[in-house]
Amino acid sequence: MAVFNPKSLKAEEFINHEEILATLEYAEVNKNNVELIDEILEKARPVKSGNGTTCKGLTHREASVLLACEIPEKIEKMYEIAKEIKLAFYGNRIVMFAPLYLSNYCVNGCVYCPYHLKNKHIARKKLTQEEIKAEVIALQDMGHKRLAIEAGEDPVHNPIEYILESIKTIYSINHKNGAIRRVNVNIAATTVENYRKLKDAGIGTYILFQETYHKESYLKLHPTGPKHDYDYHTEAMDRAMQGGIDDVGLGVLFGLELYKYELAGLLMHAEHLEAVHGVGPHTISVPRIKRADDIDPDVFDNSIPDEMFEKIIAIIRMAVPYTGMIISTRESQAVRERVLNLGISQISGASRTSVGGYTEEERPHDSEQFDVSDQRTLDEVVGWLIDNGHIPSFCTACYREGRTGDRFMSLCKNGQIINCCHPNALMTLTEYLVDYASDATKMKGFELIDTELGKVTNPKVEAIARDNVADIKASNRRDFRF
Ligand code: SAM
To answer: What CATH number should be reported for the domain whose range is 91-375?
Structure first.
């Protein structure tokens, strides 16, 4: 029997099944242990220290006790603390991005995904470099600066060379004032050598969802294809880090397995990355299964109601306070509105989950990966964020200035990241408003920027930010490094 060891590089030791079962038992026994729950909540709370704020985070065991706890006032406390942490480290900024589907050719057999090999009626598409240009221009015309590229796993149709060439194409396009300044990559688990090539191509975060941490279920849910190899998939982030990628993004597909098991596994994965590489995950995504071409989400009996979903998000926020949290347009406007207050720091807007979706007029598109709930335009999403007291940010400066991996984490941990992010968010929002926003969004956006500029704590930084905002408004652009 494998023994739990967060420092091991073996999947069965750092995501240890027996440790997860013991954790769930411990959580069940302690779910009404008010003293312990209060202690855990106290530990999670952000503490002011010097100029900044620090947080201790939570272990997978502590987080699992909170997840099991059903005492309403304690759950309310969790939401309060999650919000406090979000505001302490990320302020009211929300980073914007969009997915870009390059190809839906796939050799895997994932039973929840319509791109699986046996699906013979879904339209199979792979963008040419010319088509990628057209998609990127459409995305730049909306105002996007940050993309997550997506592709099925197919060594013949989508080899690493195709992905690398596509990244180069994306970075090369400057349409009007547009530019894609950060390309995150969500492709199948691969080799250290390929991760090194992705790093050299200048990617931002490498994202790979675990789907489920439960090995037995994983093997059934991925019956065929290279993705069937649970260990290879689970150990992918270690190979990515060995290949020099220091920002990695985790996630599980909620609905496949018991959420309690998944939360423990997800946090053990984060603990493992921190223990081995000295830096935890840059982001965690929280996708839930959606209806898709030949996929009925009701077939999977582990779906979670919205209230539990919100609780999970708040607990992840408390457990890994320095990790960004992402929510996609799989979720409705109403759900997104609630979880923005519980720790989410990045959202997608105006997403198309089909290959070539940004240049196709009509929905639904025949190569779509799953139904999108939030179908608003980027302008509508930006306006709505402002109405709800958030600052939509199009900033990509950290990665462009080399603030990745442990450099980002150490700035975040001592609360200093806010001095970079807040003015940058305001400047990139100004840029968006000038170049792309409707009159209504422009008006409320500029009002918000005026108020927020006054809140920048360092007078020097405030003066520079004010100056830059004025320059962008006058369209007298400098070479900004947002
Ligand atoms: N081929 C890559 C891989 O294997 O990781 C990229 C994955 S895919 C383009 C992105 C993610 O979409 C998957 O990791 C999965 O979690 C999610 N996904 C697949 N089918 C879905 C569905 N029916 N509803 C919601 N999300 C789904």
So the answer is: 3.20.20.70
